[in-house]
């Protein structure tokens, strides 16, 4: 904890006055407790203090971290892989609905590259960015795709991509301003930025509070709501043209949250399913109730 750094200014509005939002335990790796604060001006919620860039990597070193390990251990992770097959199809349909002259795709935080590979198999021309060395090497070996290190992100050619996708990635990014500025540079003028992030104002987020699995400290640095995502994108010259739910996320996150509440086995799974279902139903009424939301944006 001695190597943690404190953020002095809000990365959305620049304000330097914060209030305590919540404190959460890292249930996945370290069992350390991390504070999450809320900007008094714009309402942006973020982990503060947080590990520095030299230390953050150790918090991803777990077989339980599914986006990097592709583990199928346990019922919840097995269900994740079943659902992912359905979500890959829905992501393809989403991009197909956003008509562009060509199909140049950049997937940031590509992880095990299942999404990128699926898109390439369906006539997209795509490359990935993956910071984690072992995950990148595993994905490259498995699929033979072009997956670059994070440092290469800032070296990509301007006005190149029709689509830039970040599936549950932006919440991990420390340099929010740098990423938005560079995406705007490399995205074509008629291109689309697609961001999926957890929504801490969701039904399940409000219910589970500090046990909510999608806080996932300290790996998740930023915790967006619909309002703060709108402010973030608008600040960097993007307008949101669509918002879409990720309906299955509420079930997965709620089941993990039950584990965080020390309710394992059938009882935890049933309770998690109940809260996932309630989140889904309330999301039909108002998209702000969904556990995770996809934001589709274009340049202003």
Compact description:
The protein is α/β, with parallel strands linked by helices and 300 residues long.
Write the layout of secondary structure elements.
Blueprint: E1 4-5, E2 18-25, E3 33-39, E4 45-47, E5 50-51, H1 66-69, H2 74-97, E6 104-108, H3 114-121, E7 125-129, H4 133-143, E8 147-148, E9 161-167, H5 176-186, E10 187-198, H6 203-208, E11 222-223, H7 226-235, E12 238-245, H8 249-260, H9 265-285, E13 292-299
Parallel strand pairs: 6-7, 6-9, 7-8, 9-10
Antiparallel strand pairs: 1-5, 2-3, 3-4, 4-11, 10-13, 12-13
Helix pairs in contact: 8-9
Given the helix and strand composition, which structural class is it? alpha/beta
How much β-strand is present in the residues? 15-25%
According to CATH, what is the topology? Rossmann fold
Instruction: Tell me the distance between the termini.
Output: 41 Å
CATH architecture: 3-Layer(aba) Sandwich
With helices defined by DSSP (H or I, 4 residues minimum), what is the helix count? 9
Query: How many distinct beta strands?
Result: 13
CATH class: Alpha Beta
Overall helicity = 25-40%
Order of helices and strands: EEEEEHHEHEHEEHEHEHEHHE
Give descriptors for this structure.
36% helix; 7-stranded mixed beta sheet; 4-stranded antiparallel beta sheet; Rossmann fold; 300 residues; 9 helices; alpha/beta
Structural overview:
With 300 residues, this protein is α/β, with parallel strands linked by helices. The protein is built from nine helices and 13 strands. The longest helix has 24 residues, at 74-97.
